[in-house]
## 1
Amino acid sequence: MRKIVLSIVLCFFVALVSAQISLPKVFGDSMVLQRNIRIPLWGTATPGSHIVAQLGNRTVKVKTDKTGKWMVHFPKFNAGGPYILSVAEAGIPETKINLNGILIGDVWLASGQSNMEWQVQQAKDAGKEIASANFPQVRFLIVDHRNEVKPQTDLSTGGWEVCDSNNVKELSAVAYFFARKIHADQNVPIGIIQSTWGGTKIEPWTSREMLLTSPITRTETLNADTLHYNREDVIRDSLNQVRFWDIVYNPQNNTDKIVPAPDYDDSGWTKIDMPKVLKDFGIGDYVGMVWLRKKIALPESFKGKGLTINLGHPEMNYSLYFNGKEICKNVWYGNATHSYTIPADLVQPGENTIAIRIAMLWGGGGLNPGTDIFITDGSSKITLVGQWLYKKDLEPAIPKMINYQGYPTVLFNSMINPLIPYGIKGFLWYQGESNAEDAYNYRKLFPMLIKDWRRRWQQGNLPFLFVQLANYMERNSLPSDSEWAELREAQTMTLSQPNTGMACAIDIGEAGSIHPVNKQEVGRRLALIANKMVYKQDCVSSGPMYKDFHKEGNRIRISFSDIGSGLSTSEGKDVTGFAIAGSDKQFHWAKAVIESNEVVVYSDEVAEPVAVRYAWADNPECNLVNSAGLPAVPFRTDDWKGITQR
């Protein structure tokens, strides 16, 4: 009898153990589910078991397949909540999973590279923005970095957060400012799923099946089939990554104690004019730590005063030292401003020593040109522009990493596929910087990604809103070719895809930083597009878009759409940003005049003009806007071969 009872108990225990329900990590407490669609929910359980799921007062049931997989769809919900979601195997209450605090609203998937990943704590006025971030009906889920050679069914980690001052710091600034405005304008809960990775091209975000359909990506994708993660490679790369960031964040060989000292012998160092990006000084593709030093003479009046030093906008990770003492340690995704206080007890009349330890990574590193660098006591200012000294290789070499995230499809596999088919309202996308040298092919690559994602979500032509690349780099004095201009053109051409919208950012970038801090305006402009295109509000959501041109003697007249109540210029100045060319294809800066909501363009140097370009540069000087103050979208009237068309 004892054996029989023990067998029954053991069987019951085994049944309980095997009767486990699992939900993907995209589901969790405090999540937002998409309103006005049949809400998908899926997971795994015991093969052949019956699943009962309840959301609010609505219940759905399904039987798992032979592998234990199951999926249900709740009927449509209006915006609201909070609700409890419960899932259990029928008749086994011990298997029940409860998810609490769930809201029904609009969910947006925000993806792309570093300008979408750039955090709220790095944005303009970060302290103020974080302190005021109290939006309990805005929720977000940040997908952890992960890359895989095969499609994954679940995220590596999960966890929805409620938007408040404690949680908002690491959220995408663009997505946050978008969500904040849409929540205020539409009065519905907003969910953001953030899946981003800085420095990535578009190919890793696209599925293998889609990449194989194009001759542009087919060969590279097939070559990537030889990519295999084996234990030895993964361990070695993981250790290299640890060592990589250990060197970047922590000075080696006691350099932080030795090199910043005023009496350190830098007589063998190389002279360099600052501000300058180091790669422009001939270091090339060097990756590693570089030290900068400068001696400055301070007047007697500075003695006993706390000073302010402004470094403009240094690239990447850096530490600042004054007379041998560390003043700041700014790490990747760190400060949005680069002004620091020098304590009074470090200041001495006469000679003082400034030292900067700076990481040169992926072409960055240095004090960006076009920025003001100086030291001041509040009334007198001493410039730091001019000759500095620099030295590399004072610390161990940074190990090379495989950077698997650069391979085709690996980010789709691990950071997008596990999200499908979670119900969403649409997509937010900010990417393209890493594809600039291949801008011509981006005309095909970007629509491929949009079609790929829409097909897989099976919610029709979901809204796809994206940001056009902002102005960046040094400004050219003459009209010239530009990879970034061609990438922007490829983005504009993508508006031919249905239900797409583009936020132009040509006026809010920074010459010295690929990561401009004014993410508030980027999010606002995306929200304007959503308000008009998705939520059907009557508003001006885009800047002037080139429509047509016709020639009038030695002049060309340009017409636009999206002008609102008319064209003007920012700050009321003369129109800038136009260039004009004849059949010789040599462009000259043009005069431009607004006439009857059109722009007439001409140049005394071009008697027979055939083509006009506007804002066609890495960092153009341009100021045409519509009545809403939104900038005109860069364009060209010609179709001459560009520098990225091979």
## 2
Amino acid sequence: MVTFKEYLHQLRFFIQGYEYYLFLLLILSIIIGLIDAGSIALLYPMISVGFQINADAIPFYGVIEYISSLIPMGSQFVHLGLLFILLTGISLILQLAYWKIAFIFQRELIVKTKKSIFSKIDSNDYKFFVDARQGDLINLFNQSPYYVQQTYDRLLCLCTDLMTSILVIVMLFLISPGGLLLVLIGGGVFYLIINSISKNISEKLGNLQIASGQSENKVINEYITGIKPIKALHASEHWGRQYIDALKVYWDKFAELMFIQRIPIIAINSLFYITIGVIVLVLYIYYADNFLVIIPVLGTFAAGMMKILPKAMNMGTYKMELKNFYPHVTTIHSILQEKKYHSVVNGEKTCNEIISDIILEDVSFSYGHAKILHNVSMTIAKGSMTALVGHSGSGKSTIASLLLRLYDPGSGRILVNGFDLKEYDVNTYRDIVGYVSQDPFVFNASIRENILFGGLFSDKEVIDAAKLAYAHEFIMELPEGYETLVGDQGVTLSGGEKQRIVIARAMIRRPEFLILDEATSALDNISEAAVQKAIDQVAKECTTLVIAHRLTTIRNADKIVVIEKGRIVEEGTHEELIERRGKYWEMSENKA
């Protein structure tokens, strides 16, 4: 259970760098409260003067009389009436300024929070995405920051309402302690009106929040779905830019939209008091002789009632809402402060090329308590095609993840150019690594954009990569060629077509080291043949590791390594392994 002190600490965490907004808003709320209390206080002497009642007994009447006398026109009553209207108008302007600043503050706060979440999530190890549920991540991006913004919105409302209510109550008490009872009598009707307005505003805010989610869900869903190739190909910056652009769709308009929605509420209150002033002036001019003695008290305390009762009732609502919001605030705060998923520490060496064999030395790895790899040692010869085969669950894809440095070995090491992979800047290393998985990540954009994958390459490079992946021919048969939109998750393409686009994506970066992880396992025979042709071609361009379950894809490999239950059991060429009649031969006989 989070204590109130811890909650305040979390709230301060989110506004770091924006404290000046709160200071300015606090000053404005005090000034607005004083002016509102003063404008209501003016009603008593206005009405009293109209009845020719001595108002000198009011503690602050002398100050009011002095200020009103500075108006160089009309009678004392006119002075008071004009001062009332002037103060109410000033209050209106200050309230508009207050909420304009408040909404700009909230906009800055929520955009900063969303950017911080994206940056934090992107900096986490790949294991974070394995452990987390996709729905929770989507909610974290789209819903939780909204509750942070709403928390500050309620706190700002609470601040202004509380300040104004206190000052008005003090003013009413100074006029007549017994008159405060009137505030409790007639407040119900106006409360219903304000509550109805508030309910309508809440509905509009809900619709706006839905709109904001729609502008961001596409990018976040693609980012999370494709996190493995995005990480492997060092393309996070592109998705970061896309996410910031998505934020602009809604949040650039946030301050203006919220400001416009706040104007009717502010105007209704202000116009109400201006109307009172006008009515009293009219009554004085036309019906001065018929003023009742009770009107000064009724007028002043009715105005006070209309001002403070809705605010007092809102405070209970704010308190309840703040309690509902704080779990979301706590969740975001804990995620932004969490250090659990930062075990993959970046090195300092730059890796621009592969100049020697890639070697795994006694590599072991565990997922939690389950040990996946047991002292695995193997060599991926530079410029060759090495195949890694084994049954599902044998540890093949884990080796791929280690070679992409999505994880670090529990023990042992991976040597690249003679240095431990941990010593390299992981981004420079991933820039020279190509990766193709068995589940090709294709996002809702054109084929050209899918091949570029956030990179900056020429049209010629795009076409050359597509030709290398044997994708150019089918792309040119499409109505719009490379500009053809593929739909969500590439729904308009076949499995083989998607896989060849992903291979082109990998090859456009001219990788020094290419990892093909079960690239044909989910394809039919025709698609597999097309993709296999592409694999055989691209394998000539770089050092290649092909991970396969189906042996038909790796017969031409320079070396085949067989893994079983996390251990290397044999290695050699296809012919050598068949002659040994070992595990590979058994798999071949079973047509695995």
## 3
Amino acid sequence: MRSSSRLLALCAPLLTGGVYFLVSALSLTMSRFEGGIAFIWGANAFLMAELLTSQRAHWLRAIMACALASAISTALFGMGPVAAIPMMLLNVAESAAVAAICRRYAPGRNIMLSLVPLGVFVAALCGVNGLVGVGSALVASNLTPVSFGQSWLQWCAGHILGGLVCTPVLIMLMQGEWVRWFQAASRRIRMETLGLLFLLGATAWYIFQQDHYPLLFVPLLPLVLISFRAGHHGAAASMVVLATVGGASFVLSDGYLSKIAVSPGAKTQFFQIYLAFSFFLSLPVAAELNGRRRLFQMLRDSEARYRIIAEHCGDMVLNLGVDGRIHYASPSVLEQVGCAPELLIGQLGADLIHRKDRALMTAACRRALERPQDIHRVEFRLFRAVDDLEWHEMVARAVVDEQGEATGIVCTIRDMTRHKARQQALQQAASHDSLTGAASRSAFLERLETEIGRIKGDIRSCVLLLDLDHFKSVNDCHGHAAGDRVLGAFVERLKPGLRGRDCVGRLGGEEFAILLTDLDIRQASAVCERLRRMVADEPVHLDTGQSVTVTFSAGLVELDGVSDAAAMLEAADKALYR
């Protein structure tokens, strides 16, 4: 295994350099019509495809192999040994820079899949060659009779057009996309694509062979048709067919291209420009169609998941228009609302909401339309709610179009009745003492703070602090269970002497407090005396058959509306000890 890996690592750069040498040598041999820079250059397209389809760790060996191949081909078939090193540097710099830009701004993307990576590739190819071409033109203008401007133009035309036509095709070939497409496509699609490619080849052959009419636009029709039917795979294949047929006609010096009264170099540039226009007609269309095809597949998958969730979930799912009317209602509406889903279509969603909560629901929908990127929640009661525990929660988010404008709202509505009941039970447990049923210390202090804030003008309220007398002896003589029974019975004996708006709380141990609202100190003192008699006159009967008479000491203060709850309790405590 290790020896085979070493052999593969050694053969890979040799193969890469060999292919680069053959392509560059062929280009230099056949297209240096004026003795300067080659008019056709596909070797760098091969190196760019190699870099874009391989890991960065393998870039150096590929670049070194192609650099050596470039130097040898330039020395043997190009401008000679003097130009070998500078042209080598320019060639590998172009390929490496374009590949690096594509990896940086379109990472992990095939440049054929959508317009963004394709646009990045075209911009990088044109920009880099515009700069690198300056160096190549300086070399060529000093070593050959070709001028600087003409050399720069030949470099840009040959390298840009060669990269545009060859790189996408080579990337797909190296990644095995054509093989995967052929295996995945149905037999009908394969036969249809092959037929269209044959039609394109036959049409292109006839157009290039005849010399009577300028019909080079005719192959563009099957070219676009293949792009629509077979996507970027067919578009790339059609470029290969068009380049092969046109190139063969050009080499044979027969047909329409041979009749153009210009130099061979100009004819070559004309043919490359023709292929470039065909590229810009077919491949961007195919990339856009491919993006839309993937988007359609994603939408179809999303729609399938949405349907499964909507039709088999206990939560209600509603689609509302911008006017608030229902466009879709899930089957669970029948169970939750008691109405068939189809009968709700066209009705206002607010009609399902309790009249007291419709403003909340309308405001939530309005916020969803104004901020479509956010998720909005609101709790409300349905129109058929019979008590305050029958609550539902709506989660809403806007549906947007391609411009980001809201076109409707998707809502999921969940029954929160059990949650509300649990929440209320937890609140009840947190706000009441489990042993006596009196308010807990925190709940009583909160109520006291609220009452202090209410005190103003003629409003008077008092706080009464109670401490059971000799409670420790009850625990010592009768046990803690008896003590617990005494505490519970004590609160029960207090309640008949209190009004509904009064509040009794257990502060800890045998210490209690009572908030007497809307009573001054004189009235509260009378209430305290009445409570004392009620408690003392009714002993607590224990399970042992014994009875315990309960008395308490009390401290009473009137709320001043300034001091906080802790200060008021401290004042009541001092009054109790007095």
## 4
Amino acid sequence: MDASLVVQAGGEIPPLTTEILVIFAIIALALVLFITEPVPIDIVAIAVLVALVVLEPWTQIDPATGVGGFASSATVTVLAMFVLSEGIRRSGLINIIGTQIAERYGSNPFKQLLAVLGLSGGTAGFINNTPVVAVMIPMVNTLSRKTGISPSKLLIPVSYTAMLGGMLTLIGTSTNILASDVSARLIGRPFSMFEFTQLGLLVLVTGIIYLMTVGRLLIPERIKMSDELIEGFEMTEYLTEVVVTEDSRLIGKTVPDGLAELKVEADIVQLVRNKQVFSEPLARKEIRAGDVLVLRTDQESLLTFIESEGLELAPDAEVDEDQLRVEDDELEPVTDQRLVEVVISPEASVLGQTLETLNFRQRYDATVLAIRRGGEIIHARMDERRLRAGDTLLIQATETTVKRFANDRDFIVAQELTLPDFRYSKMPLAIGIVVAVVALAALEIVPILISALGGIVAMVATGCVKPEEVYPSVDWSVIVLLAGLIPLGVAMERTGAAEWLASVIVVYGVSLSPVVLLGAFYLFTALITNVVSNNASVVLMIPVAIDTANAIGADPFSFVLAVTFAASTAMMTPIGYQTNLMVYGPGGYKFTDFFRVGAPLQLLLTVVTTLGIVAFWGV
């Protein structure tokens, strides 16, 4: 660090150097890319790393330091925690607890909400919150069907408490682990396993009380539980039956060939022939005269379709959900089909692709009838829409296909509370391994890095996680993001960029007390976390917070904690945190719903967390 940049309260801002300007330019460009996301954020992080190394004369980041993030204890520990979380997920622990909640509290809305929030917040302190929320989405739908309460009333609270629950322990989120690593490097004080558990409990309880009272009133009921899926996805006007006439041009063609020749957007959802109902897979079915086709198309396209292809409307052309499930005594289903909602996971490999490029219908033996993206229902030009995290697909598929979706980490089946391949017999072993990992680190017998890596070995050795499941269980985008951003924090320190920002804060905040500055750091970090990665917020803000604390004579550790907690409260946008994206579609939310519910909570937590830090650690 350049000691000449240290400024006491009331001093002057030191001049900007070329090195600092280069770092600010890299940061500014990275923030723009993080917000606009023309490419995935992990690719942006790699670009930042490359820029830092290429511009070494100004950034002071040599190649070894640049790639050092991949060998960082924070990066490797986060990787290990993904595998440990997979072991817990595969054991079915959360699913069993969720089933018990559904059975015990399914008829009492207040107890239902309290139990759901307790499960979401409590478990997120020890395993990754993404699988927690993935299991809780279908659980919430089960509870909603029992009580008639909209899942919209429960899913935002589930996401928020999963975030807050991550602040119970060091291993609760990747952000905590990264913040501990940065804190150790800059002030020589990493976090212990339960370093901030008391504050985490205070924050979690505050969040639960808010969501049980004020927040409950602010959350809108976007999805009506009285709606069938057909109505909920506004499919009534898009599904109809047509009869193939003797002179139809489709006769003798297979279903894919017939679809390829259509001049309008339409899908053949079902084929009814001699009271037999055929659904996916339809690839080898040849269309015959007299066949009844269930089509997904709009009214304008339907008229064009009928005129050009030799079809006519069936006598009773209205299609309902029972018909798509083939619950008609006069019809015989050849394959057992049903409707189901499937959510695209935040770490899905299909993100950015379209149904067409994926060849979705043939690849998954499933027909997509509609897409819900937040509060928007998409029917037109679905094949051309790039899939996003949180998109909810209404699909028609067989039970076998639904089970494949349930076992695929790319998807979350929103109606399935019980998955078929949980390793219930391994549950005691999986729980014991996680407890051992936590205990060894908490008692400082071995560092968390070693205990977590040992946990991976134990999970595989005991069969809780199969060897071929280890690599797919890791969210590699998070790993690359961490590794790419860690050198940026180093560059901010070496070039004096962090101290320059701290000097600006000190000069203009000379009249503010340390407690107010502490709260300001919390609030500012929380705000930027809503539009950029929480790990990026930690890398950028902790060095500045530490230098500010040193300049005003405050405890830098308290400022580190403020930034760390704030980075896990991205509650005002659905894009701020991955669990928000996961509930965005299933809850049918609008973008502004998160601000309406999350903004008051964000302000409340600013006060509670700031005062909690002062009470527990001083300032």
